[in-house]
Amino acid sequence: MSDYRDLWQSLNMDLERHDLLCAALPSLYEEVYLNQPGRPQGMNYFNAVIAEIHGMRVAELAEHRKQGGKVFGTFCVFVPTEIIRAAGGVAIGLCGGSQFWVPDGEKVLPRTVCPLIKASVGAKISRTCPYFESSDMLVGETTCDDKKKAWEILNEYIPTYVMELPQMKREKDRQAWIEEVGIFKGTVEKITGKKIEREHLREAIRVENAKRKALKRLYSFRKNDPVPISGKDALLVTQIAFYDDPQRFVERTEELCSELEERVTSGYGVFKNGAPRIVIAGSPQAIPNWKLHHLIETSGAVVVCEETCTGTRYFEHLVQEEGETLEELLVNLANRYFQINCACFTPNHERVEDILRLVHEYRADGVIHYNLSFCQPYSIEAARVEKALKAKGIPCLRIETDYSEEDIEQIRTRIEAFLEVVR
Ligand code: SF4
Ligand code: SF4
């Protein structure tokens, strides 16, 4: 990686601790990613993004800010990034996927909070994540209770704006969400100093839709047997989508897809024909949380789809691009996001239907319901998901874990036993 120390210094990062964080990633990446056989050439771009994870993109953000642009750090797939883009801002999905940050998070949060939240807060207070340090504002939402309280703590360190997301999906909730999206637009205009016109929003919708379409195309190849790309690689591409430049990301993902298309035509796969096919459903898996995928794919099965926020919940449903007025486009935008089936909603039957549909579409043999420790919404909903799957004769395994490595062998044993049932 080039030398970015001056840049990190200018962001007021804790360089000594940041060195410790950076030291761990290359060996983990090599073990989990680079050792996979038969990887597509198109993954080289994504390898380079990871090799430069705290460099190239951070330098681009610094340049953007030097030109007077703003950066917004987001945590949830409900934040309408089109609005940020339409106002000339950049939206960065903040990952919080590393165990490195958890102890710092536990300094200000109870231990009994999900690792995603603890790591996100820890990343900020330890000043070791350049994306947090490059953000002018964080955007939170009222999804799960723990997040709601975490925003109050983060707001002590950096301005943290909170969008109110309804918890039900009645018509009055949809109307409230449309209003909330409008309020968010006003806030973003204030921070960026730029008024959003219809054409700006239309272009931003087009760009974000292109990203969704590229991801949909990528996922479509995973429906084949043999699969032309591993679940780990597909997960990585989705994780990178949250913070890469969208136009560049689309180009590179489309190139990867063209290669996968050729692989499918010639019958080339990265797992043998008939390898057990698994859908992961549940909590998000932020970079560098590759634990579950790695365990599954080193046990002889392949992950063919993720019903998670780092999977289909992120890119399913496009925003309707046609609209005569700015207001119409804002309604289109709100409607698209309102279709996401997060476990924070009640009731939430649609999520169970989504999982059944994905099992069918991706010709999966079983589902692993993945739960980050202390994530109440997904943990409670897991029982209903399991019941619905079992009623259809689809095997389901429930795994609850955090970012630590302590339970790896125990989880591996459970996955191997599950794969015996699935085979
Ligand atoms: S699980 Fe729900 S709250 Fe968490 S990122 Fe996804 S949509 Fe947002
Ligand atoms: S993983 Fe669960 S507990 Fe953690 S932020 Fe998402 S919904 Fe909340």
Automatic annotation (TrEMBL):
Keywords: Iron, Iron-sulfur, Metal-binding. The keyword Disulfide bond does not apply. Its cofactor is [4Fe-4S] cluster. One of its GO terms (molecular function) is iron-sulfur cluster binding. InterPro entries: FldB/FldC_alpha/beta, YjiM-like. It holds the Pfam family HGD-D. Transmembrane segments: none annotated. Belongs to the FldB/FldC dehydratase alpha/beta subunit family. NCBIfam families: double_cubane. This is 2-hydroxyglutaryl-CoA dehydratase subunit D. It comes from Calderihabitans maritimus.
